[in-house]
Design brief:
- By secondary structure, this protein is an all-beta fold.
- The protein has a single domain, classed as TolB, C-terminal domain (Neuraminidase).
- Helices cover 0% and strands 47% of the residues.
- The strands form 7 sheets. Strands 1, 2, 21, 22, 23 and 24 form a 6-stranded antiparallel sheet that branches. A 5-stranded antiparallel sheet has the order 3-13-14-15-16, with no helix packed on it. The protein has a 4-stranded antiparallel sheet with strand order 4-31-30-29, with no helix packed on it.
- Strand 17 (220-222) and strand 18 form a beta hairpin.
- The two termini are 25 Å apart.
Length: 377
């Protein structure tokens, strides 16, 4: 794989790249783009491996997967966005009905099961053990004098959740959430915030990285030791356990194409932008990245299960989204196509048996839906 300077290196064509950065060798985070629920245990942040720029040899040509996606739910699913899974249920947020819906894992639900409601647009979600968190971008009850009204809500998945717990509040346009087993991180439009998984005092999260000026919440990921985020121009990092970095986090790879999603797994950091699924190797320094795959479409959600990295592409025109995967530790000149003709896929999650994703929908002929596909071997 060749090394690239991310800034200015990608033409404004409808292409996406897969990029990665080597990080501490710990189990994958569960968050906006979660890995298998088998990893639902505290991360061993002390476990490290040698950082290397080396790729394994490219695998044999990855043939398109011949299994057909199954629609888990569409009736009553209004603009689904975030998605998460545990041993018992598949969960997703609905942006415009302010709720979390669910369906028994591995099955379909012609009428999805209502699980919880908030007070505003529900976006990203994270499931960790028996904890379910979701981000609410703003409250429908906000007024011009309300100030920031974004919030994080929490449910115990072993119980009904007719009255979810307000976990964090007064956030500016939060969009993404990540859980590393100890802390919950929220990517807002003005920075990244942290709460212990047990809860925030007075619902006030700790500012970890500040000074962002973004129109939407920052993409984020944590491996238990290092917190990664996109600040509008760079992938930046900060200690996940320290007091925060203020407006001076470590600047890593430069990417001006609008990074939206980050994911960790297989000892690497991956991210997508509007042109690419991209990242970096080694300590993620020197503004350089290694392109693992170039694909067509607008890169969205990422899920990593150790051996593979999965992602979804919004597509270059109506209902042309795709679901893709590549080995997480090998060169991938030709990504494997898992599904095509999807109606603007946004988020993705995997467990030991299946790949799941949300389609936000594009029109009445291509409505929002939640999809499932058996995992290729």
């Amino acid at each position: 794989m060749r090394r690239i300077q991310i800034a200015g290196a990608i033409s404004a064509a409808s292409a996406s790249l897969l990029v990665f950065c080597v990080v501490n060798d710990v189990p994958p985070q569960l968050g906006s783009d979660a890995a298998s629920p088998d990893a639902n245990k505290p991360l061993d942040a002390s476990s490290e491996s040698t950082l290397t720029d080396a790729f394994d040899a490219a695998p044999d040509t990855l043939q398109p997967w011949d299994a057909s996606p199954v629609e888990v739910a569409s009736n009553g699913v209004a603009s689904p966005f975030g998605i998460g899974v545990d041993q018992n249920y598949l969960y997703w947020t609905t942006g415009y009905t302010y709720e979390v819906q669910r369906c028994p894992v591995g099955t379909t639900c012609p009428i999805p099961l209502h699980y919880a409601s908030g007070t505003g647009q529900a976006w990203d979600m994270a499931v960790f053990g028996t904890h379910l968190f979701w981000v609410e971008r703003d409250s429908a009850m906000a007024t011009a004098d309300s100030g920031p009204t974004g919030a994080v809500w929490k449910c115990d998945t072993t119980l009904p959740c007719s009255s979810p717990t307000l976990f964090a509040s007064q956030l500016l346009e939060p969009r993404h959430i990540a859980v590393d087993g100890v802390n919950v991180f929220v990517g807002a439009a003005d920075g990244v915030y942290r709460c212990p998984i047990a809860g925030c005092g007075n619902n006030k999260p700790t500012p970890m990285i500040t000074g962002f000026a973004m129109g939407r919440g920052a993409g984020i990921a944590s491996d238990g030791t290092t917190l990664y985020a996109f600040d509008g121009a760079h992938i930046v990092s900060c200690s996940a356990t320290g007091l925060g970095c203020g407006n001076a986090p470590t600047q890593n790879a430069t990417d001006t194409s609008g990074v939206d999603w980050l994911g960790i797994g297989g000892n690497r950091l991956f991210w997508t932008d509007h042109l690419a699924l991209v990242g970096c190797t080694g300590p993620c320094g020197n503004n350089a990245g290694t392109v693992a795959a170039t694909v067509a479409g607008d890169g969205n959600g990422i899920a990593v299960d150790g051996a593979w990295v999965y992602w979804v592409e919004g597509g270059v025109s109506m209902a042309t989204g795709r679901v893709m995967r590549c080995p997480s530790k090998a060169a991938c000149p030709q990504p494997q196509v898992l599904a095509t003709n999807q109606a603007w896929p946004t988020s993705i999650v995997v467990d030991s048996n299946n790949v799941y994703w949300t389609n936000a929908g594009v029109d009445q002929q291509h409505p929002g839906s939640v999809m499932m596909l058996s995992k290729p071997p």
